[in-house]
Every structure is written in structure tokens, then in C-alpha cells.
Amino acid sequence: MRKLVTAFAVAVFGFLASPAIADIYVIDTKGAHASINFRASHLGFSWLTGRFDTFSGTFEYNEANPAESKVSVEIDVASLNSNHAERDNHLRSDDFFNASAHPKATFVSKSIKLTGQKTAIITGDLTIRGVTKTVDIEASHVGGGEDPWGGFRQGFTGTATITPSDFGMPNPIAQNPVDLVLEVEGIRQ
Amino acid sequence: MPLMNSTSSYGLVSRLLHWGMAVAIVAMFALGFWMVGLDYYNPYYKSAPDLHRSVGIVLLILLAFRFVWRLVNPDPDRSALARLERRSAEIAHWGFYPVLLALMASGYLISTADGRAIDVFGLFQVPALFKQPGLERIAGSVHEILAYLTMLLAALHGLAAIKHHIVDRDPTLLKMLRSVPSSQS
Questions:
Q1: In sequence order, which residues have a C-beta less than 8 Å from that of residue B137 and are 6 or more positions away?
Q2: Which one, of B52, B69, B58, B160, lies nearest residue B111 by Cα?
């Protein structure tokens, strides 16, 4: 009987102590504590880096059960910035993103597989130029907690590799893989 | 209590605008001076600039209203003053408008240079009219210089008012404090 009571108490306490539902976080693009960066090989000689300046997104983070977390992001394709206006216009053109016809790119997670204490593979649908492909993001939890201004934050970093031609980009150099480097900090709502 | 100005004193609307904006502008200077020195980990590091931007937009709206109000209202009679006093009062009074407008415009440009909107007390947003990255540097310097210029102008204006009240013992300051029955009515 005593064992039963103890087990019951542990169960109740465990239920109360664990957050019943995942917390919702808004990615802090307002304070620019998040960035979507890309890295592409230039002729095999060097790495060219760029970013998408404008995007928004949210994630659900379940601290007790991180595999139940979710993330979705919407990117303004035309905000592409490789620090070279003419190149950026070329990348926005139909040769690559066709940003006028497909102004938004999106990522919506489908499943999360934990691979370690702080690491996971986030599998989701990446849509560029209206073409949706499944992409794996190697993600890790950087840190989280109260900020000095009354908010609560969680931060993650991630990388993924995509082949732009998979999304229908006709320019031959789109057949070369591009690395995505993602830095995400969210503020709990 | 008349709302409009008369030739003998300022109406209630002008007095409320004058004293309300005077207090707010001096407080904004103090807030701005204090907040730019805040440590990143200070609890007010985010909320102080939020307040400064919000109050700034409200002051810009009040300034526009005040300018229109000034144009449609009579100005209390200053013919009793010496020519130099009259001229310098006019320069100071009218000078506040372009200086404050430029002060507020430069502040707006600091916050919107990167295309971000200004959030006003979480109630509405003022969008960025022109995105011009890098503009925040020159706008910041202009904002600082104009803030000091505003305080200088306010100090001269205040000292002149006190001088009229204590040295000259004339009703110049009182016109802004209470309504005096118009000599013509």
C-alpha cells in the first residue's frame, strides 16, 4: 500500500513538474538574434557566403520531450543578400529563385529525432520555387533561460545541405550543393 | 476658461501643449542621455529605447497639431516689450518648430534606416518610409547635436521668462500660466 501511495505521489509530482504542453516561441527576427545564412563554393576555390535578411517563424519547444518540438519558418526570397547587388539580382531571377513568381520559401518540420543530449535531426519540408523537398537539418541546442529584460529565450544552431537544382533552378551552377547555416533564437510567448 | 489664445494671454489648449511638451521634451532628453549609457544586461536596456521611440512619435503628432494651432490663434500682444526682446522672442518661439521637427525626424531615421518600423506603445506602428542602411550613423550624430541645441534653446527661453517675471515684473510668464481677461473684451 505504501509503495502504491509513493508511486502515485511520484506520478502526480512528475506530471505537475513536467510542462504539460510545449511552449511557443517566436523567432527573434525583430531583435535580429536569428539568421539564415548560406555558403556556396566559388569554383572550388573559396566559399561565398550570403543570407536572407527578412524572414519570420515560430517554434514549439518541449523541454521535457524535445522530440515533440516543431518549427516553421517563412523566408522572403527577395531579401537575399550576398553583399553584391548585381549578383543578388541574378540570384533573384528565373535562373535561380524566380523571386517575383515565388516570393516565399518555407520550412515546416515533420519529425525530430534526438541524436544526443543537445543534438537532433530535424526533418521537414523545404519549399523553394514552389517545389517541396524533404530536408534534414542537423541541429543542436545552444542555450536557453531568462534574458535580462523579462523574457525567456531558447537558442539553436543548425546546418543542412541542399542542391538548388532539386528545386528547379535551371542555371547549371545550381547543381552544386549549398550549405545552409541557421542560427535561431526564440522568445517564449 | 478660453480654449483659444487672446491678445492678452494664452488659451487652455496652448498652455497644455506648452507645459506638457516642455516636461516631456526635457524628460526625453534625460531619458535619451541615460539610456545610451546603459549596460547591455541592464533590465531597461530594451524598454527605455522602446519608451523613447514611442514618446517621440507622440511628440511629433503633438508638434504638428501645435503648429496648426499656433497658425490659427492670435498671439498675445508683445508691443510693450523692447524691439530686441520682441525679435529674440519671435526667433526662439518659431525656432523651436524646425529644431524639434529635425530632432524628431533624425530620431525616426535612426530607428527606420534598416527598414524596421517604429512600434508606438504596442498600439500601432510607424513604417519605415525609406530604407537606407548606414543612414543611422549620420542621423544619430544629428539627433545628438539637435538634442543639445533644443536644451540650449529651452534654457534661453526659460531664463528669459524668469527674467521678465522677476526683473521686469511684467506679465509675460503669467500669460502662459493663467488666463488674463482680454483688455479688448
A1: none
A2: B52
- pLDDT, one tens digit per residue, over B25-73 is 999 999 999 999 999 999 999 999 999 999 999 999 999 999 999 999 9
Number of domains in chain B: 1
Cell of B76: 498675445
In terms of residue numbers, what domain contains B142? Answer: 12-176
Q: A148 and B116: CB-CB below 8 Å?
A: no
Residue B5 resides in a domain: no
Reported ipTM: the value is 0.72
Q: Which grid coordinates are listed for B37?
A: 549609457
Is A84 at the interface with chain B, CB within 8 A?
A: no
Enumerate domains of chain A plus CATH numbers.
Answer: 22-188 (2.40.128.110)
Backbone φ and ψ for A152, nearest 5 degrees, come out as -135, 130
d(CA B154, CA B67): 17
The answer to whether B43 contacts A150, with C-beta atoms less than 8 Å apart, is yes
Instruction: Looking at the complex, report in whole angstroms how far the Cα of residue B23 sits from the nearest Cα belonging to chain A.
Output: 27
Detail the DSSP E strand segments found in chain A.
23-27, 35-42, 46-52, 55-61, 70-76, 80-81, 104-114, 119-128, 131-146, 152-162, 178-188
